[in-house]
């Protein structure tokens, strides 16, 4: 049956939360606005997203929603509180000693590796040490609740994606009680698993910046990094796990609006920071835009087929709503680069991050690392305003009324009186 012909309350709604480091605070603002529109429609309680798929920092937000699927408003409020109060040192070591132990050594190995290669102990695994993030997640997220939420029917599936440095495959780990068949595509596979904090750390291990994490895959340990790497079809997990319609929340502008001002051109050779920011944007942003366009083309093609031909194909139309930042987050990060701790500013300065505001450089890289309230708070506000600006579109997507049903107090009193008269006498 075509999902578009079924009542809205019978459709399974999926949620895709993409990666982007500190940029994932934007997702929380979108979710807060969705929760507000849901309350405006007179609805509360369990999550409206029985299928949730997250990647990188989006995996952390996804896991939080899944662990508290019985109370969507409470889960969103918790995420807002978390992201509004995050600081860099809760995500990675930001003190001078920590920077010397990881970042400074990493840069030294890049330049003097030929001279110190014999001393293996001097080889750091990444630019930054994300041990604080591991401690935060173990305090914040109770992953054992995912199983409870699935058993109670509040959730249908949670999917977390990672990229294996060992095998080169992109892997989607998913947890569910329903009988979904694992899917296999070129260079990407799905594996049913009991999800843990280690899956979140692996999925959010930004290449070069955070260290890889070992996960079990078919009984063998493999090293995994950020799930946005080699993720050619970000929307795919939600479709495979039974979603009829999908809300996709991006962490960067999908397209530049017509007539918009082009960003300032780089003069001279680009710095390492500019190259790194460009590479990360390619990893985190480009695949999503391509996958959305692919899904829209499939929907359009299916719409042209006669009903008999549509029934004969395994493809099905999937309604998708994409909400992405209306502002360039690079520009927003440039306004807040000064809020980074001195040791981090010093490290980033060595690769070309400098300045603040319009004259800043390397802000694309900074936008993924700027876990400070001044930046994350603005992202949350931007996510809320972008979503509320599309209020009618969001309400239509979910099938929610624009206003909560009006209740006549007099009619309610009459119904209560009638119930009291017809109720059996107490024993």
Walk me through the topology.
Elements: E1 13-17, H1 25-40, E2 51-55, H2 57-67, H3 72-84, H4 96-116, H5 131-140, H6 144-151, E3 157-164, E4 170-176, E5 184-185, E6 188-192, H7 197-203, E7 213-217, E8 220-225, H8 236-240, E9 245-249, H9 272-304, H10 307-312, E10 319-323, H11 329-334, H12 342-349, H13 363-366, H14 373-388, H15 391-398, H16 409-422
Parallel strand pairs: 1-2, 1-9, 2-3, 4-6, 9-10
Antiparallel strand pairs: 3-4, 3-8, 5-6, 7-8
Supply database-style keywords.
single chain; alpha/beta; 427 residues; disordered C terminus
What does this 3D model show about the protein?
The chain is an alpha/beta fold. The protein is 44% helix and 12% strand. The chain contains 16 helices and 10 strands. Strands 1, 2, 3, 4, 5, 6, 7, 8, 9 and 10 form a 10-stranded mixed sheet that branches. β7 and β8 (220-225) form a beta hairpin. α2 (57-67) packs antiparallel against α3 (72-84). The termini are far apart. The model is unreliable at 103-119 and 419-427 (pLDDT under 50).
Concise summary:
The chain is of the alpha/beta class and about 425 residues long. About 45% of the residues lie in helices and about 10% in strands. The chain is globular.
Poorly predicted residue ranges: 103-119, 419-427
**What would you call the structural class?**
alpha/beta
Mean pLDDT: 82
Can you tell me the overall shape? Answer: globular
Strand content of the residues, in percent?
Answer: 5-15%
Helix amount, in percent?
40-55%
């Amino acid at each position: 049956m075509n999902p578009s012909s079924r009542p809205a309350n019978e459709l399974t709604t999926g949620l895709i939360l993409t990666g982007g480091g500190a940029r994932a605070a934007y997702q929380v603002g979108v979710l807060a606005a969705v929760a507000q529109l849901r309350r405006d429609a007179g609805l509360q309680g369990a999550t409206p997203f029985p299928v949730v798929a997250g990647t990188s920092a989006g995996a952390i937000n996804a896991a939080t929603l899944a662990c508290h699927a019985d109370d969507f408003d409470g889960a969103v409020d918790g995420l807002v509180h978390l992201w509004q109060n995050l600081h860099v040192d809760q995500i990675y070591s930001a003190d001078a000693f920590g920077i010397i132990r990881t970042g400074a050594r990493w840069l030294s190995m890049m330049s003097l590796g030929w001279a110190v290669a014999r001393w293996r102990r001097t080889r750091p695994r990444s630019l930054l040490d994300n041990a604080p993030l591991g401690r935060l997640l173990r305090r914040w997220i109770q992953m054992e609740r995912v199983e409870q939420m699935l058993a109670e029917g509040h959730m249908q599936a949670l999917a977390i994606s990672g990229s294996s440095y060992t095998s080169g495959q992109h892997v989607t780990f998913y947890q569910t009680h329903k009988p979904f068949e694992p899917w296999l595509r070129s260079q990407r596979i799905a594996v049913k698993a009991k999800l843990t904090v280690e899956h979140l750390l692996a999925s959010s291990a930004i290449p070069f910046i955070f260290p890889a994490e070992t996960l079990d895959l078919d009984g063998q340990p493999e090293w995994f990094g950020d799930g946005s790497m080699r993720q050619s079809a970000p929307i795919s997990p939600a479709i495979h796990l039974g979603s009829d319609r999908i809300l996709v929340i991006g962490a960067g502008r999908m397209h530049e609006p017509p007539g918009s001002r082009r960003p300032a051109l780089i003069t001279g050779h680009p710095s390492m920071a500019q190259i790194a920011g460009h590479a990360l944007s390619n990893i985190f942003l480009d695949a999503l835009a391509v996958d959305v366009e692919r899904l829209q083309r499939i929907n359009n093609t299916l719409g042209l087929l006669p009903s008999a031909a549509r029934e004969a194909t395994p493809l099905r139309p999937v309604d998708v709503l994409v909400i992405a930042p209306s502002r360039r987050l690079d520009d927003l990060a440039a306004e807040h680069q000064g809020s980074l701790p001195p040791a981090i500013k010093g490290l980033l300065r060595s690769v070309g991050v400098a300045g603040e505001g319009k004259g800043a450089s390397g802000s694309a890289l900074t936008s993924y690392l700027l876990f400070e309230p001044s930046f994350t708070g603005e992202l949350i506000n931007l996510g809320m305003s972008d979503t509320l600006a599309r209020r009618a579109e969001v309400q239509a997507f979910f099938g929610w009324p624009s206003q909560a049903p009006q209740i006549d107090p007099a009619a309610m009193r009459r119904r209560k009186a009638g119930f009291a008269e017809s109720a059996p006498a107490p024993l």
